[in-house]
Amino acid sequence: MNYLAVAKQMRGDFPAAETLYRDAVEICRQNPAPLDLAAILLNQARLYRIQGKFAQAETLAKRSLAIHRLQVGPDHPSVADTLDTLGWIQVRLGRYAEADSAYRESMAVRRRADPVNQLSLAGTLNDFAFLHYSMGRYAEAERLYRQVLATRQKALGAEHPDTADTMVRLADVYRAQHQLAKAERLLGNALPILEAALGPESLRVANASNNLGVLYHDEARIDEAVPLFRRALRIYQKVLGKDHLQVASVLSNLAVIETSRHAYRESEDLYTRALAIEEKAVGPEHPELAAMLNNLAQVYGVEGRYDEAERLYARAIDIWERSLGATHPDVNACMMSYAAVLRKLHRKKEAGELEARARQSRIVRDHDEPSTSLVDWRELQRQ
Do 279 and 368 contact (CB within 8 A), yes or no? Predict the structure, then answer.
């Protein structure tokens, strides 16, 4: 039942997979088999992670981790596999310190359990790099992704979907650092690999399409970006449902397009839909929610709705500072946008203080990581 559930999950039949997992767990309850139960719980956690049910996924991953530690000891590869899943869930919940701890423990386990297995370690490093990307640590994310890409190309070949997946993620880092030609080359190579290996309706194909659309928007190639976003949206809605976190992300990207076209009413409608999905999925304090609040505030500012923009900017900065720290590039850019709105509201003293904070935090960040000094506020929203 567990294996059949995995097969159903891979084909996108999530309701059937969930039913099978639950039935398998019940069998384990009636006929105690701890390691079987741990494996089923981990797979079920991965299903919930895909569906955006992050709180439920975390609970199951922690149960699986406790069983694995008890049954096979702290240095077994199954422990590392479970830690990787837990870390990914915690990144999506915006709990970066906990995710960092999970990934570091996983890497230590893998090095002790099988020091020559670089491919296994690469899987953890791939996710660890995404954590750094999410926190705006682009130089470190780039270093890790390049290491993973070299390992996967050597072990799996250039046409493997896992190799292509790392190419997509590395392209995001290059885009965040405004190295657009490098990013476009990677995405252009990765997308046909994923289509050939996984089919045109794969979630990984949707991810790559969405990211290429973001890149085209950055390059002012709006007419090329829109079909890519709509393709990603169609796949996400078909496979994940209309209320999934990934759907909200694409709606937000489409809203950015409408803002570029000065279609502010359409942009506001898209952001409002995306915010409703996002807040339900990850809660009111998640950094991805802050990105959408910031984007909508930009629209209100352009429309002259300064009081509404001020309220959204203040909320976004509060969320970001607590989750990402005051020196994150998104926080800096948001502060400057907020200050501009305060000046429109004739609150010049507050605006000056905010600008001074932004300049100081940028000085600190540029000193710590010079390569990230040109990043704008949209980067987190587009991950």
Answer: no
Residue type, 199: G
How many CB atoms are located within 10 Å of the residue 116 CB?
7
* Residue 380, pLDDT above cutoff 80: no
Percentage of residues in the chain having pLDDT higher than 70: 95
Distance, CA of 148 to CA of 159 (rounded, Å):
15
DSSP per residue over 234-289, as a string?
Answer: HHHHHHH-TTSHHHHHHHHHHHHHHHHTT-HHHHHHHHHHHHHHHHHHH-TT-HHH
Among 130, 131, 132, 126, residue whose Cα is nearest residue 149: 126
Please report the pLDDT score of residue 115 as a whole number: 86
Domains and CATH numbers, the chain: 1-110 (1.25.40.10), 119-221 (1.25.40.10)
Give me the phi and psi of 12, to 5 degrees please. Answer: 85, 10
Mean per-residue pLDDT, 342-357: 92
Q: What is the rounded CA–CA span in Å between residue 342 and residue 347?
A: 5
Residue 72's pLDDT band, with cuts at 50, 70 and 90, is: very high
**What pLDDT is attached to residue 368?**
60
Scanning the structure block, which residue is given the tokens 């659309």? Answer: 213
DSSP secondary structure of 49-82: HHHT-HHHHHHHHHHHHHHHHHHH-TTSHHHHHH
In terms of pLDDT, which residue wins out, 118 or 323?
A: 118
Residues 222-247: b if buried by 16+ CB within 10 A, e if exposed: eeebbebbebbbebbbebbeeebbbb
Closest C-alpha among 90, 79, 155 to residue 128: 90
